[in-house]
Every structure is written in structure tokens, then in C-alpha cells.
Amino acid sequence: MEIVPVSPRLAALRFAEVNDLNVYVWNDGAEVTLIDSGLPGAAGEIERGLGVLGFSVDRVRRVILTHAHDDHIGSAADIAEWGAEIWVHQADADIVRGERPQPAPVLRDWERPIADALELGPSPRPAPVHRELRGGEVLDFGGGAEVLAVPGHTEGSLALYLPCHRVLFTGDTLANVGGVTMPGVFNLDSTAVEAAAHRLTDSDADVVCVGHGEVLTAESLYAWRSRRSAR
Ligand SMILES: [Zn+2]
Ligand SMILES: [Zn+2]
Questions:
Q1: 163 domain-assigned
Q2: Which range of residues forms the domain containing residue 222?
Q3: pLDDT tens-digit profile of 10-55?
Q4: How far is the CA of 221 from the centre of ligand 2 (A)?
């Protein structure tokens, strides 16, 4: 796990072995909000990362899960045991609670060999859900965090926008692994994901925190937008 500082309020804990998965650590001074929770078994690494950033685990007030895939919800049960609340969109909440399996993605032809090569790890432990989100709420961290419902990657996928800081968290609706910016893969509805990714990057964010890969800055966002409009 690598600790990537983004701003005084924001750092990424990046897991290279999970396709550059990010667990984001947002702090409002003493109070910490995590965006996503990594694979099952990641809680120890997250605790270590928090320690390096100067936070004990009891500072984590909440974890907001961008969607209910194993690499994002995997350690939510462990983090809930630290005393943090788990918040997730209502359409994915029963998956987090272990009441329903995640439906299989609708793969495009080129995604099949990639999906076939993936090794399945242990399933996440069921986690409690303390708050179910719907989209449209403004959450009490980061100066007010807007919840944007972006169904497509999963039914309950969400993005978060912090207008005071112009920071956007996209979950897996957008990825930026190995310098390639692209809408997410392994989706329930890839057409919806493409549309949502374009909609999100047309916002006035100048820091875009993707689920997998490097954080996009204003310059890289501008380059991605102009490549799109050149097509
Ligand atoms: Zn995902
Ligand atoms: Zn993912």
C-alpha cells in the first residue's frame, strides 16, 4: 500500500495489487471520512496508512462506499468495528449487509478474457449499514458533500462532489490506471457508465479522485475533455 498525499485534507491509500485501487482519507481536522474500504483483509493496511497520516482509527467517523463491489466494501465490517458508520446507496445496501450477492456484470466482448483471468478472493464479511443514501443529499463533511447517484457500474453506484474544495470522487464510474482515463469496466450497464463519466467530468471539479489509478488534476481533466470533443 502506498500513501499518496493529494491536499492537506486528502490522501489516497493506493493498493497496486488491486489494479491501483484507492481508499481515500478525507479529514476535516480531527474527524476523518473514508471513501471506500478496500478488499477483505485491508483494514490493517488502512490502519497503518491512517497512522502515518496522523490519525488513530477512532477518528474515522464514517465510510462512504461508492458501490458494493468486493474491492470497495471488503473491509467495511472491520472498519465498522472501529466505531465508524457505514454509508452506502440504498440500491447496493443489501449487498453490503450480505443479504444479496452482487449481480454479475454484463460484459462486453473485449472484457471477457480480462474477467476470466481474474482470481476470486474471499468474499467480504457482511457489514452494518448505518445510513442509506439516494442521491441529492448534502453530507456533513468536506464543507458539504453532494451525493450524485450514477447507476450503471452497479445499481447503487454513487459519486461525491465537494464544491467548497472542487473535489470529486467518482468510484468506478471513471478510472485512470496507467495513464489511461476511461469510464469504468465490468458494469451492469456500460452505456449508462459512459454517459455518467462524461457528465461527471464536465463538472467544475479540479481534483477528480477515481476508484482505480492516479488522481486527475485540472490539466489532465482538460486533456481528457478536449480529446473527447475532438472525436
Ligand atoms: Zn467496481
Ligand atoms: Zn473497483
A1: yes
A2: 2-118+128-230
A3: 999 999 999 999 999 999 999 999 999 999 999 999 999 999 999 9
A4: 20
